[in-house]
Amino acid sequence: MILFYILSVPVILSVISFFAKNLKTLGRINAAGHLSVMLAAFYFAITSKLPLNLFNLFYIDALSVFFIFVITIVTFAAALFSIDYINKDVSSGNIKEKKAKFYYALFNFFSFSMLLVPMVSNLGMVWVGIELTTLASTFLVGFYNNKTSIEAAWKYIIICSVGIIFALLGTIIFYYAVSTAGLAKTLNWHQIVPFSKILDVNTVKIAFLFILVGYGTKAGLAPMHTWLPDAHSQAISPVSAMLSGVLLKTAIYAILRFMVITNNCVGTSYTANLFILFGIISLIISCGFILLQKRIKRLLAYSSIEHVGIIVTGLGLGGLGWYGALLHIFNHAATKSFMFFGAATVVKKYKKDNLNVIKGVLNAMPFCGVMLILGMFAISGMPPFSIFFSELFILISGFTQGRYFISGLVLGLLAVIFAAIVYHLSRILFGKKPQEIDKSAETLSTKLSFLFLLVLMCVVGIKVPIFLNKIILASLEILKGNYGL
After folding, report:
1. Does residue 484 carry a pLDDT above 50?
2. In this model, does residue 435 exceed pLDDT 80?
């Protein structure tokens, strides 16, 4: 069964990491394993008859497949980028070889926990899966074991644990609503959805509010975002890409499952208004911090808060906004991972992350400099890159509904953020490189990780591939409450 293959490969790779003798070979095995997982996810997406119910424990529909595919893309790219990145850390003395092997074990445990979330059918198990992602990623945030990384790890686990407690309370309240409605005592979302209209409206409203605040904390929604800039900037760089690219999206996945039940029970306006409120707040707060930011990885971290705000705003607008939000989940995962790889390469070369100090990247690192120029425009939403079109769909949805204030505000904030990101990154890209920085080229594995994501960003920017469009359209039916498709 392909599903079990996708789950078992990270577990096997995690075990292998403790017994491998050659670190570079381990990195290549890890990348090859995640390539096979990504290809398996792609094959599963185009061939499997959905929905798929296994032992009433795993329930896979189009929405599940969409998130699984996004996760496997980013984890493969991060595994490929890790080969040279971890070797350089060992050769420079930043970490020992034993700790490097531990990194690969944690990397795969983290990957396994994220893949588990969209596969399980029980909302309680979704909560367990997201809690596992927190435990695995905490060690990766504090991986370098210095003062700032340890502080970021503690901040991450404390704030996210508080959030996850709210999510647990919301899940319990949902269970109470189901049990008091005379239904079978279950938390399997595919069994709850058909009968969600008979649930108590007020109870479901309270439950969803807890869910949105709880999982919204893990998703990086403002004002519950305070852990994110520290964690993303201090985590080992390949993991920063995974945190921003897909970890935030697993929390959004959980919110979507509860949104379907809530919408069927109380109507769409309740969740839509909450989404727009938190989305706009996230955009405003991220805009302010992006304007004033001085460190490159923190700049990208606040950009993640911005894009989560865009996604949630799209979900609130509905219609074409839902399509744009799902497409933006894919686009942001690829583009932000691409940017974190670029930032990591620059920081490792210059041994600094201050935007006021780094100069002449294009001269010192021609390939990485070109990639950062492309990524700078891609993450800012310029055509022909993919993010432009998902943002455009969301804006079109708002304007066609006559929600001119919200759409105009989003457009204005995006324009300011675009100018800020171009200003910050152009300062480090151009100019003369410092004399102590030698001109160098990236290794093949590093270049391939960039090029792989760049192809995705460009291809989806030109035309959404047929299979991806089909998955997104089928996922929209799930969000509408139409199960069995």
Report:
1. no
2. no
How much is the average pLDDT of 164-182? 91
Confidence of residue 269 (pLDDT cuts 50, 70, 90): very high
| Pairwise CA distance, residues 247 & 168, whole Å | 18
Give the H or E element holding residue 58: strand 58-60
Q: Tell me what pLDDT residue 237 has.
A: 87
DSSP at 431 = S
96 φ, ψ to 5°? -90, 160
374, HSE (Cβ side, Cα atoms, 13 Å)? 22
Percent of the chain with pLDDT over 70: 99
Helix, strand or coil for residue 64?
A: helix
Residues in Cβ contact with 346 at an 8 Å cutoff, skipping those fewer than 6 apart: 296, 358, 361, 365, 368, 372, 428
Give yes or no for a contact between 207 and 159, defined as CB atoms under 8 angstroms apart.
no
- The pLDDT of residue 64 is above 90: yes
Tell me, what's the pLDDT at 304?
93
Instruction: Identify residue 338 by its one-letter amino acid code.
Output: F
**Please, what's the largest Cα pairwise distance for the chain?**
74
pLDDT at residue 221 tops 70: yes
Selection from 156, 390, 163 nearest residue 254 by Cα: 163
What is the residue-averaged pLDDT of the chain? 91
CA atoms within 13 A of residue 7's CA, in its CB half-sphere = 12
Say if residue 110's pLDDT is above 50: yes
| Domain range summary for the chain, segments of one domain joined by + | 2-479
- Take residue 297 and report the two structure tokens written for it: 């990885």
Residue 235, judged by CB atoms within 10 A of its CB (0-12, 13-18, 19+), counts as buried
54, containing H or E segment: strand 52-54
Distance between CA atoms of 33 and 449, rounded to whole angstroms? 15
The distance in angstroms from the start CA to the end CA of the chain is 21
Instruction: Say how many CA atoms lie within 13 Å of 230 toward its Cβ.
Output: 19
What is the per-residue DSSP string for 101-132? HHHHHHHHHHHHHHHHTTTB-BHHHHHHHHHH
- Number of neighbours of residue 478 by Cβ within 10 angstroms: 23
Handedness of CA 103, 105, 106, 112 (dihedral sign): positive
Where helices occur in 318-463 by DSSP H, the ranges are 320-350, 361-364, 366-379, 386-400, 404-429, 444-462
Mean pLDDT of 430-446: 82
- pTM beyond 0.90: the answer is yes
DSSP code, position 188: B
Q: How many CA atoms lie within 13 A of 12 on its CB side?
A: 14
Q: Provide the residue count of the chain.
A: 485
